[in-house]
Design brief:
- The chain is of the alpha+beta class.
- It folds into three domains: 161 residues, Beta Barrel (Elongation Factor Tu (Ef-tu), domain 3); 62 residues, Beta Barrel (OB fold (Dihydrolipoamide Acetyltransferase, E2P)); 117 residues.
- The protein has nine helices and 13 strands.
- α2 runs antiparallel to α5 and α3 packs antiparallel against α4.
- The longest helix has 33 residues.
- It is rod-shaped.
- It starts with a helix and ends with a helix.
- The relative contact order is 0.18.
Length: 360
C-alpha cells in the first residue's frame, strides 16, 4: 500500500487515540468528489473532430468528439438495401400472383394439353403399325417416350396454374416477415454503431481530459473524453472501526471543509462491508481500532454545488438522528436470562477496546 493511501488511516488512528469514549465524536477523513464520466470509443476509427477543449462546460447532449464514419456508413447503406429487398419480397408474397401470370399459366397448360394429345395420337398410330409389322420397335419406343414427356409437361403446367390461383402459403408469408424483421434489426444495429461515432455528453459537466488528438485512432474501449459531472458533490471518507457498527445508509452528517467556518450538511450513502486497510498481524481487540471502512457521503447543502473536487474534508455523523445506538441495541434483548448472559459477556469486551485505542 502506498504512503498516500495510508495517510487517511494514520490520521484516523491519531484521531481515535485523542478522542473520548463516545464513537460519535470520531471524525471520518477523506476528500470531496464528483461523479467522473469516462466516454469510450466503440469503433476502431480515427478521430476527425474535437468540438470542445479541456475545462469547457458542456450541456447534456453536446457533441464532444467525432470519429470517422466512412466504413460504418457503407455498412449501414448495405443493411438498408437488404431491408428494402426483404420488404419488397414480403409485399409480393402478401399481394399474391398477378393476373397476367395466371393468364400465362393457363396458356401454358393449354399448350401442354395439346402437345399431349398429339403425342398420344402418334403413339396410337405407332402401336397399330407395329402390330401390322409396318413399324420398328424403336419407332414405337420413341413415340411412347414422347407421349410420357408431354404428359409430364401437362401435369407441371397444371400444378403451376393451381399454385398461382391458390396464392402463397401462410408459411411463405411468415418466412418473408421473419426475413424483413432480421433485415430491419441489422439496419438498426448498423445505424446505432454509426451514431455512436459522435461522442456526446450524457449530462451537464466540465471537460476534464481529452486524451486523443485529431488524426489518432483510439482503440475500442479507450476513453476519448473524461467529464466531471455537475450537481451535488459527495465525500469519500474512511470510517473508523468503532463507528462502523452504528452507521446506516441515510445517517445525517456534518462535513467540514477548510476555508468555511460553518459545516455543510450531508447524508451517508453507503459504507463498504470490508475494511479499506487490513493489518498484516492478527486482528485482536487492540488491532481492530486501526481498521477503517470506505464510505460515501452525499453533500446536501445547496452552497456546496460550486465546491471543487479533491479538497480534504472531515465528516462527523449525527448518530442520535440515525436510530438506536449500538450500546442501546445490545440492551434490548435482555428480556430473557440467556440474552442477559450474552449481554454480560459482551460488555467487558466493549469496555476493553476503547481504553486500548485511547492508549495508542
Amino acid at each position: 500500500m502506498s504512503a498516500h493511501s495510508l495517510r487517511p488511516v494514520l490520521a484516523l488512528a491519531l484521531a481515535l487515540a485523542a478522542c473520548s469514549d463516545d464513537p460519535a465524536k470520531l471524525p471520518s477523513l477523506g476528500t470531496l468528489e464528483r461523479d467522473r464520466l469516462e466516454l469510450i470509443a466503440e469503433a476502431d476509427e480515427p478521430l476527425v473532430e474535437r468540438r470542445v477543449k479541456e475545462g469547457d462546460h458542456v450541456e447534456a447532449g453536446a457533441l464532444l468528439v467525432r470519429l470517422d464514419g466512412g466504413r460504418l456508413a457503407a455498412q449501414a447503406e448495405r443493411a438498408r438495401s437488404a431491408r428494402d429487398e426483404a420488404r419488397a419480397r414480403l409485399d409480393e408474397l402478401e399481394r399474391g400472383p398477378r393476373a397476367e401470370e395466371i393468364t400465362e399459366a393457363r396458356a401454358q397448360l393449354a399448350g401442354a394439353e395439346g402437345a399431349l394429345r398429339t403425342a398420344t395420337q402418334e403413339l396410337d398410330r405407332a402401336q397399330q403399325l407395329a402390330r401390322a409389322d409396318y413399324a420398328s420397335r424403336a419407332r414405337l419406343d420413341q413415340a411412347r417416350m414422347t407421349a410420357d414427356t408431354a404428359r409430364a409437361a401437362r401435369d407441371a403446367a397444371r400444378a403451376r396454374l393451381q399454385a398461382l390461383v391458390t396464392g402463397n402459403r401462410v408459411e411463405e408469408i411468415e418466412r418473408g416477415k421473419s426475413a424483413l424483421a432480421a433485415a430491419e434489426a441489422a439496419l438498426a444495429e448498423a445505424e446505432l454503431r454509426e451514431s455512436r461515432l459522435e461522442v456526446r455528453a450524457p449530462r451537464a459537466a466540465t471537460v476534464d481530459a481529452l486524451p486523443f488528438e485529431i488524426g489518432e485512432r483510439p482503440p475500442p474501449g479507450a476513453a476519448v473524453a473524461v467529464l466531471v459531472a455537475d450537481g451535488e458533490p459527495w465525500a469519500r471518507v474512511h470510517v473508523p472501526e468503532p463507528l462502523r457498527t452504528r452507521l446506516r445508509p441515510g445517517t445525517r452528517a456534518r462535513i467540514r471543509i477548510d476555508g468555511y467556518d460553518a459545516p455543510f450538511e450531508g447524508r451517508l450513502r453507503s459504507v463498504a462491508s470490508e475494511a479499506a486497510f487490513t493489518p498484516y498481524f492478527a486482528l485482536t481487540q487492540r488491532d481492530r481500532s486501526r481498521l477503517s471502512y470506505l464510505a460515501k457521503v452525499d453533500v446536501t447543502s445547496p452552497a456546496a454545488l460550486e465546491l471543487p473536487a479533491g479538497v480534504p474534508v472531515e465528516v462527523t455523523f449525527e448518530l442520535d438522528d440515525a436510530g438506536t445506538p449500538a450500546s442501546e441495541a445490545r440492551s434490548e434483548p435482555q428480556a430473557s436470562g440467556v440474552h442477559q448472559a450474552q449481554a454480560a459477556r459482551s460488555e467487558p469486551q466493549a469496555s476493553e477496546v476503547v481504553p486500548e485505542a485511547r492508549h495508542e
